[in-house]
Structures are given as C-alpha cells and as structure tokens.
C-alpha cells in the first residue's frame, strides 16, 4: 500500500549561499522551482519595504510598456509584411514584460496581455510561413484565454493545415467552434475547408 505523500518527509539536498541567500541543489528537477523562488526573492528585495503590495492597482508603467510593444509590433507588421522579424521581436519583448510581472499582481491581467501578444506573434510567424512557431503561439494564446479568442483558434488551425496535419486541424477547429460558436467567420470557413478535404480523402479511400 502506497504511503500518503502528505505524511512522508523527504529531505532534499539544498545549499544556501550565505551572501546572496540563494538556494541551490544538485537535483536537476529542482532547478526550475528554485529559479522561480529566486525571481520572487529579487522582486521582494526591490520593494522599499520588502513587503508585497496589495494586488491592485498594478504598475501602470509596465502595463503601458506592454501595450507599447504590442502597438509597435502591429505597426511594424503592417509596414513590413514581407519581413516580420522586427514585429516578432517586439511582440517577444512585450511577452517578456507581461510574463515577468511580480507574482502578487493579478494573474488575470497577465493572461489577458499574454493572450493578445501570443496571438499577434502567431500572426507574424504565419506571415513568415513559420507554421510550427505560429501553431505553438496560437495554442498558447488559447490556453491563456479560451473564450472570445476566435482569431487564435483560427490561426492554429490554419497553421496545422499548412503543415498537412489535417486531422489534428479538424479536431482543433471543431473544438474552437464549440467554444466560439458561428460568429467567427474565418474559423467557420476553415472548418468547411477541412470538411471538404476530409470528404475528398474518404472518397479516395473508397475507390
């Protein structure tokens, strides 16, 4: 019979640096949680009182910078539609700012900002015919915000089609239509294209 993990004590090999007070461990699986802990520690040390402030209001400067990176990315993509590299970099900067918010700020704000930026960067990747990258970003956008995000649903579906992954695209688009309904014209149209392809494949198999 397996023991209850809540009643089991496991001593982990941790070392604390006496100067920086940072923790380290030889266990690889602890590297990510320790890095997150150190990020939170640095955020706290940067505060005047070293006490987390109330969740609201958020830092308006960071919000303004995130929006600025998104706006500049949109402008760059419109001006340089044949070369989206600058827009991709601007969206990436915005994502780094949004995802780098201190842990005590509202997670919903982070998800909203990240959803928009992932969707924008997915579009930039699609302009450059970088379909795997576009599919990954569109999926990340949907994971941040499933409803009211029809463009991200469509963009991943379109990327999957461009990669020849029709069956996966069909499953994805049908799920998106269940959530978004028929109001997203591009998603509906893509779903019909996929249905026609699937019907054609069935006819070929039946010969």
Describe the structure.
- The structure is a single chain.
- By secondary structure, the chain is mainly α.
- The protein is built from 8 helices and 2 strands, in the order E-E-H-H-H-H-H-H-H-H.
- It has helices spanning 31-45, 60-79, 85-99, 107-127, 131-144, 150-162, 166-180, 185-206, and strands at residues 15-16, 23-24.
- The chain has a two-stranded antiparallel sheet.
- It is globular and about 70 Å long.
- The protein starts with 14 loop residues before the first strand and ends with a helix.
The poorly predicted ranges are none
The average pLDDT score comes to 88
What's the arrangement of strands in the largest beta sheet?
A: 1-2
Number of strand elements: 2
The best one-word shape is globular
Give the number of helices.
8
Task: Note the main attributes of this structure.
8 helices, mainly alpha, 207 residues, two-stranded antiparallel ribbon, 2% strand, globular, single chain
Task: Sum this structure up briefly.
This protein has helices at about 30-45, 60-80, 85-100, 105-125, 130-145, 150-160, 165-180, 185-205; strands spanning about 15, 25. It has about 210 residues and is an all-alpha fold.
Task: Give the secondary structure arrangement, pairings included.
Elements: E1 15-16, E2 23-24, H1 31-45, H2 60-79, H3 85-99, H4 107-127, H5 131-144, H6 150-162, H7 166-180, H8 185-206
Antiparallel strand pairs: 1-2
Helix pairs in contact: 2-3, 2-4, 3-4, 4-5, 4-6, 5-6, 6-7, 6-8, 7-8
């Amino acid at each position: 019979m397996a023991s209850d993990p809540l009643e089991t004590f496991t001593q982990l090999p941790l070392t604390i640096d006496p100067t920086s007070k940072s923790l380290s461990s030889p266990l690889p699986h602890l590297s990510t949680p320790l890095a997150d802990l150190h990020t939170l520690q640095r955020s706290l040390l940067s505060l005047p009182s070293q006490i987390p402030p109330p969740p609201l209001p958020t830092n308006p400067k960071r919000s303004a910078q995130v929006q600025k990176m998104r706006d500049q990315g949109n402008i760059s993509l419109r001006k340089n539609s044949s070369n989206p590299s600058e827009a991709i970099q601007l969206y990436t900067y915005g994502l780094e700012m949004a995802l780098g918010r201190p842990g005590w700020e509202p997670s919903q704000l982070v998800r909203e900002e990240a959803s928009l930026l992932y969707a924008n960067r997915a579009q930039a990747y699609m302009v450059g015919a970088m379909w795997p990258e576009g599919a990954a970003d569109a999926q990340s956008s949907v994971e941040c915000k499933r409803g009211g995000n029809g463009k991200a649903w469509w963009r991943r579906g379109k990327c999957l089609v461009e990669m020849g992954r029709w069956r996966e695209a069909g499953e994805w688009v049908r799920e998106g239509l269940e959530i978004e309904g028929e109001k997203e014209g591009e998603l509906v149209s893509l779903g019909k294209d996929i249905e026609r392809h699937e019907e054609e494949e069935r006819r070929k198999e039946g010969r």
